[in-house]
Amino acid sequence: MKFLFVEDEVELVELYQYMFDRIGLDYEVAYNGEEALEKVKNGQFDFIFSDIRMPKMNGIDFLKNLISEGLNFKKFVFVTAHQEVSLDEVKEMGAHDILYKPIRHQVFMDYIQDLQA
Prior knowledge:
It holds the Pfam family Response_reg. This protein is globular. It is of the alpha/beta class and about 120 residues long. Helix 1 (about 10-20) links the parallel strand 1 (about 1-5) and strand 2. It has helices at about 10-20, 35-40, 60-70, 85-95, 105-115, and strands at about 1-5, 25-30, 45-50, 75-80, 95-100. Strands 2-1-3-4-5 form a five-stranded parallel β-sheet, with helices on both faces. The longest helix is centred in the N-terminal third of the chain and has 13 residues, at about 10-20.
């Protein structure tokens, strides 16, 4: 399983990279929706975790572009500190789920493990 982690806060990315590396996960990082879209066009990801509020292209527009361009992914999960959208709304957009920050590290790792099952 390979996933893409899209987050604009560098400190958060570094924290999660440390956790991902410790348990040997296969992942790539993008810092905004535009960069993430290019990575998906040039690679294969099973799962995508994306922040919503980001510069250049937000997470909602990123998901819309993935779908409109017919790019493949198994599950798309929003990870956000803001409750601007509900679970029902993100599911209507084509996302699998939404996780709200702050997320305890073990909870996030367990969530990733469950996606792999």
